[in-house]
Design goal:
Layout lengths: L20 H10 L4 H14 L2 H4 L5 H13 L3 H14 L4 H13 L3 H14 L7 H12 L3 H14 L3 H13 L3 H14 L4 H13 L3 H14 L4 H14 L2 H14 L4 H19 L56 E2 L2 E2 L8 H4 L3 H12 L3 H14 L4 H13 L3 H14 L4 H13 L3 H14 L4 H13 L3 H14 L4 H13 L3 H14 L4 H13 L3 H14 L4 H20 L7
Antiparallel strand pairs: 1-2
């Protein structure tokens, strides 16, 4: 983390120092504190000064300014030498200590940096200035002392609640393994600065660490929207697609990253591993598509609701992961049986005129094929032609909204859902999709209002309580969210997502017993969801019930052998067990 802090540039008047007229220009140039011109000017002042002048505290500013100029040239060794000389002349020169500390930070000499920042703060801590706390926090974080880093970041945020401060503190929480607190900080950073790419990127990593791949992909897609040439975002998203078993999408991202940086080792390794996985899958005569049931979010995540694209006779299809993927236009009543999926289920369709909501099968198939290849522009163009021919068709508008949302254009998706719902006020897919889009856009209050309105006419819909619970959970209203997830399972006891989400609220509250019970119920309903097993396994591991944890991790990996949370947890357990066995070997005497 870099903090741009002002260096000393106080030599506008060299109080107490007599300078010749020819030196006046040098004094002015020296105050610039950047560039070769400043370095040369400060150097001439130093060389031309007599011993009495050199010992004046004001002369320390000349060394400090030249040190700042060296710093901006990335010449930290010379900068440190000059700041040290300034401190030697004036031991109470707080800004010189602070500036030298910044140089030590860049050189990864963190203990020296911490010592300098602490001394600067002891001598002079400017009122309502967060910079020195931020700088020292960065040094603590650099050496891995994240508790002290968090303490300093917190002090800085009390003085100046800036987005980057929350990003930095969130990063330290993440390094400690506390991804939940990290996500809270990243959420606040995004609220303060919606285009803060660091916050989106780091939140994606925290979601990935929690096993919540869908949300990680959604955030990484947002990063790519900000910067389509972000090799890191493309590579990380490729890794998440690979972990979900969506190999084609993973390969596409890795190849896109390598087009930008052909030597990127991480992208190369990801591409190679994914291609190997595809070959193995084909060799085993297993389809190379992802599991039929989309994976769930993991520990204490704030999971976005999802619905399948259409209600299939068995398990629902995978949910495209860029954002909370909304439901597609309604299927015929004969196939409208609710089916459990992650975080939501397909619900019975509200009655609407087929001509206004049903999409012609051939067109629908074309759109789905384009979506699977991520050819969103072509899919939208195809739908726009159809909408031009049938401008009042709610189903076409809803489907275009689905494509917009998958491509990351959630504002446009919401506009289409709004129009579809206006045309067909009882069109349930559009109403639910509108709620989901508002949640993705973090318009939680609006989403809750929509849920309340829908529940007045459709109080039997567990999915709506589940969605409202998600919005409440995103606002950290844990008891209210838990109550809604409870109502969701009362209305629809087969809604695995609601059981899982309620389990998350128990886990957040530290009630592992109830969390495990709810995760177990979710697994009973949806035994093909690897993330449910992985999350319950982590709770067993925390409770030191290692055998149960191992069993769950193995179950998760049997469903999806790329489940990162299960694989790493199981590996850690195996290492621990091996070390324990080594300790039990009798030591040889003598």
């Amino acid at each position: 983390m870099r903090h741009v802090l002002a260096f000393v540039s106080a030599v506008t008047v060299l109080g107490g120092i007599l300078v010749q007229p020819a030196a006046a220009d040098d004094a002015a140039d020296c105050t610039k504190a950047i560039g070769d011109e400043a370095i040369a000017a400060c150097g001439r002042l130093i060389q031309g000064a007599d011993q009495a002048t050199r010992s004046s505290p004001n002369f320390a500013r000349i060394y400090a300014n030249r040190g700042g100029a060296y710093f901006f040239r990335n010449d930290c060794d010379r900068a440190i030498a000059d700041f040290s000389e300034a401190i030697k002349i004036d031991p109470k020169f707080a800004a010189a200590y602070n500036s030298r500390g910044l140089c030590h930070n860049l050189k990864r000499e963190f203990d020296r940096a911490i010592s300098d920042f602490s001394e600067a703060m002891r001598i002079d801590l400017p009122e309502k200035s967060s910079g020195r706390f931020l700088a020292r926090a960065a040094a603590y974080a650099g050496k891995g002392d994240h508790d002290r880093a968090i303490a300093d970041f917190t002090e800085a945020l009390l003085l100046d609640p800036a987005a980057n401060g929350y990003v930095s503190r969130g990063a330290s929480y993440a390094e400690k393994g506390d991804n939940d607190k990290a996500i809270v900080d990243f959420n606040e950073a995004i609220r303060l600065d919606p285009r803060n790419q660091g916050a989106w990127m780091r939140r994606a990593v925290s979601y990935a660490n929690k096993g919540d791949r869908d949300r990680a992909i959604a955030d990484l897609t947002q990063c790519i929207g900000f910067n389509a040439r972000s090799v890191m975002a493309l590579t990380l998203r490729g890794e998440q697609y690979a972990a979900k078993g969506q190999h084609n999408l993973a390969i596409e991202d890795f190849e896109a990253a390598l087009l930008i940086d052909k030597d990127n080792l991480r992208a190369k390794n990801g591409l190679e591993a994914t291609r190997v996985a595809v070959v193995r899958t084909r060799t085993a005569a297993v389809p190379s598509t992802p599991p039929a049931v989309p994976p769930a979010a993991t520990p204490t995540s704030l999971p976005p609701p999802t619905t399948p694209e259409a209600p299939p006779p068995a398990a629902p299809p995978s949910v495209p992961p860029e954002t909370v993927t909304p439901a597609a236009p309604p299927a015929p009543p004969a196939t409208a049986t609710p089916a459990p999926v992650e975080r939501s289920v397909t619900t019975p369709r509200a009655p609407a005129a087929p001509s206004q909501t049903a999409v012609e099968p051939a067109l629908r198939t074309q759109v789905e094929q384009l979506r699977s290849r991520r050819e969103f522009k072509q899919a939208i163009e195809l739908l726009e032609k159809a909408i031009t021919a049938a401008p009042g068709h709610a189903g076409l508008l809803n489907l275009r909204g689905v494509v917009f949302q998958q491509s990351g254009q959630v504002d446009k998706a919401l506009a289409d859902y709004e129009q579809a719902a206006t045309l067909q006020p009882e069109y349930l897919d559009a109403l639910l999709n509108r709620i989901r889009a508002k949640i993705v856009l973090r318009r939680f209050t609006d989403g809750i209002v929509d849920c309340d309105r829908l529940l007045t006419t459709r109080p039997e819909l567990g999915i709506v309580y589940n969605l409202r619970g998600v919005a409440l959970l995103e606002q950290n209203k844990i008891p209210e969210a838990r109550a809604d997830f409870g109502r969701a399972v009362e209305k629809d006891p087969k809604l695995a997502a609601a059981w899982f989400n309620r389990g998350l609220t128990f886990q957040i509250a530290g009630n592992a017993e109830n969390a495990i019970a709810d995760f177990s119920k979710a697994i009973e309903i949806d035994p093909k969801n690897d993330a449910y097993f992985a999350r319950r396994g982590r709770l067993y591991l925390t409770a030191k019930q290692n055998e149960l944890a191992i069993k769950d991790f193995k179950s998760a990996l049997a469903i999806n052998n790329t489940n990162f949370l299960a694989a790493t947890s199981l590996q850690a357990l195996q290492v621990t067990k091996a070390l324990e066995q080594l300790q039990q070997i009798p030591k040889r005497g003598g």
